[in-house]
Amino acid sequence: MLKLYGGKFSRASIVQWCLEELQVPYEFVLLDMQAGEHLESDYTAINPIGKVPAIIDDDFKLWESGAILLYLAERYGHADTVKLRAEIAQWVLYANATLGPELLNEATRDREMSRLLKPIDQILTLKPYLLGDQFSTADVAIGSTLGFFQIRYKMDFTAYPAVVDYIKRLGSRSAFQKTMGSRGV
User: Fold this and answer.
1) What is the CATH number of the domain that holds 63?
2) Is residue 159 part of a domain?
3) Which of 19, 32, 72, 73 could pair with 137 in a Cys bridge, judged by C-beta atoms 3.0 to 4.6 Å apart?
């Protein structure tokens, strides 16, 4: 059985959401981050960086939430063609390398918000999910990022009505409620 290692209120909840959507059985191993369990040798043998999340699937160890999402999409569903894998990868990378860091940067956030969200809003005006009619791992990556900033930083996305509807649609999914929703993202 796959093991997911995470801390309370960590990015492990994003991976949990994906696992629940894919209906992959897993064991969640909660590390006490305040006590430093993520820095002990048992865990650094899995992730030498000492950060969460990380997984062990059979004997395969992987860390970094974006890499884990891509792996899960390919291994357990959602990504059965090269083109689909590339599309999912672009959204996962965009969420982790561009959208999240840009929204976090207070110095440029106001200037960049429209450039970051307007194209997503336009896409979601035409279809319910980033890749079309079907929910995918791309939605886990982008949805968790948008939800985090909306809740944690009280970001107002009302100028992007399709994004607001999308966040609500994702938030109503049972897998989201079981994982991200129970933690307030």
Assistant:
1) 3.40.30.10
2) yes
3) 73
